[in-house]
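User: Please predict the structure of the protein below. I'd like the answer in structure-token form so I can feed it into my own downstream comparison script.

Assistant: Understood. Taking the following sequence of 236 residues as input:
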Amino acid sequence: MKILLVTLSNIGDAVLTLPVLDYLKTIYKDARITCICGARPREIFEGDKRLRRVIVYDKKAPLRSKLALLKELRAEKFDAVIDLRNGLFGFLVPARLRIPWSLRVPRGIRHMKDRHLFRARMAFPRQLRAAESGRQSFFIAEDDRRYIRRVLEEAGLAPAEKVIVVACGARSSTKRWGADKFRALCPLLGKARQARIVLVGDEMDSAVAESVAGALGGQVINLCAKTSVRQLAALM
């Protein structure tokens, strides 16, 4: 079984599509799955041994590049296309099984994880819908786990010590707190829960994290812009 799985562009959105991958590998254990994802969540899928290939799709790529990729995918002769974007690939890549365009997800299914899973199940024959999906989901390499153990040990974190992870930023400016808010919040969290605070985020959040870490010293461990997506998952 050759399957094309088209996921989403943002990291959080892509994480919510992982149960679909679990489901597909449960009902087709030997499936050869090609995954298309955006540039930001690529780390979620790269290195996952359940995938035959990961293609990073650039929405801003020239039309010529998009058409070349479409031609390549059409030549693959996939048995199934699961396009969770409802986009170009789901419409133009031929396959025997696909998500019906007329499909409407019941209103009672609200969480996006469950909505994705419902749509994937509808793409397969009725007798397969009841299959229980496995729960591997997020792939984390052992190297990622070792890295997190090492940086926490170097920061003086005891093995039994509690940790609270604080993401000190957001992609949208309307969702961002100022550094002063985090400087006030982190000591309250640490004292209330008797825990060390670990700051995380990307390069855009570094200034806030450095301000908080500079003011609070040993109360926080600053890992902002120091982890990959999988390393952050290992920390969590």
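That's the full token string. Residues 179-193 form the longest helix (15 residues).
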